[in-house]
Amino acid sequence: MVIKFFRHRNSIYTVLLGVVFYTFMISFAVNAISVFLLLLFFFCDKKSAIQQKFYKAKRNKLVVLYFVFFLIQCIGMLYTRNVEFGVQRLSVMVPILFLPLVVSVEKIDIKLFDFLLKVLVIWVVIQLLVFLFIHIYIDQRQYNNFVLYYLNDRLGISQFYISFILVIPILKIIHDIELKKTNLPICLLLGSVLLFFALLLGNITILVFLSLLIFIKTLTAFKGKPIYFKIVILILTCGLIGFGAFLTPKINEKISILLKTTDFNYEIIKTKHSVTFANNTLEQRVILNMSSIEIIKENFPFGVGTGDFKDKLLETYTRINFKTGLKQKFNNHNQFLSEFCKTGILGGVCFLLFFLYFFKELSLTSPYFTYVILLFFLGSMVESYLYRQHGVLIFSFILPLFLAYEKQRSNNRIKN
């Protein structure tokens, strides 16, 4: 039995990776268990192999950076007042301590991982169609409320996190089409369903990402074509996404509100949101960002502590009577500002260093890593990803995993 385990160890590891992906939208508990199974798997190895993996991890700058980032969160506990909330924050971030280590040093079965991603495409499409069927025909609700009532309330997952589990299958489909390894009509059908749900999320960040994805893929796919040909392709594809967005009620409503009600004077914005529950999300984010910047200035250079940033935000909302912020108890909705609020220049600079490291690894020929980093970067400017488990999973699992995967693919090609 032990001999068989070690013989198939790489395959078992890759299957465990698949379990993490497949349980992302199903169960918070099962997904958390699958994450800790990866840690258990890491230690189910020969003593010499474990020592070698730790040796590799110590030399891996990214793994060290994750460790330092978690350590900074612990340092922030030394001067926090709300210890209970700080402990809660640390418990959510525990995977940061070991997931990057595991996925950076364990060997991936490339062929099996590619197959798991192919299955993930079908799995995500089926899941979302079933969720939508339940929402419309069993819960008797309108399809344009799918995100609010089913994903947010019933599953407890923000559209910012769902976007990653949508984008990875989209990237897989694009990659298979580029390699001509798939049935084109089926690929286009599955891609269309995924694009429909991407638009149904009603997330402007996803629209910006999809536009950038199309722009980059157009440049790489038609690099030998004349410039006017590329421009026509870009206009047609972006126009198609724009038309789809126009037909999506949630996005259409957001854009309409932004165009009709947005003010550009901060004092006017504060006054407006102090007397009414205004739905202008752009103005809300302006208030959130300005409130965060105010907290950073007042608590420079080390921030307010790991457990106090939410309390400080609510104090600021109370002072300016930000009605929606108080009712919804908004967090920073910006991961960069969130880190500077919590642990000042220590956490803020460390979080920036992640992107400095990641950006050095970007490549236009990358099938996955470049695009998940791009989406995470865009999302981090408008969402506090590390506030919830799903966001921590994206940060500590998906990003380093696809970096390790693409490095291993590249090394395999060189050896062959």
UniProtKB/TrEMBL annotation:
Superkingdom, natural source: Bacteria
Subcellular location: Membrane
UniProt-listed Pfam families: Wzy_C
Domain O-antigen ligase-related: 193-352
Membrane-topology annotation of the record: Multi-pass membrane protein
Transmembrane segments: 12-43, 63-80, 86-103, 115-138, 158-174, 186-215, 227-247, 336-359
GO CC aspect terms: membrane
UniProt entry tagged with the keyword Membrane: yes
Keywords from the UniProt entry: Membrane, Transmembrane, Transmembrane helix
Chief location of this protein within or outside the cell: membrane
Protein's name according to its UniProt entry: O-antigen ligase-related domain-containing protein
Species assigned in the record: Pseudotamlana carrageenivorans
Lineage, opening ranks: Bacteria, Pseudomonadati, Bacteroidota, Flavobacteriia, Flavobacteriales
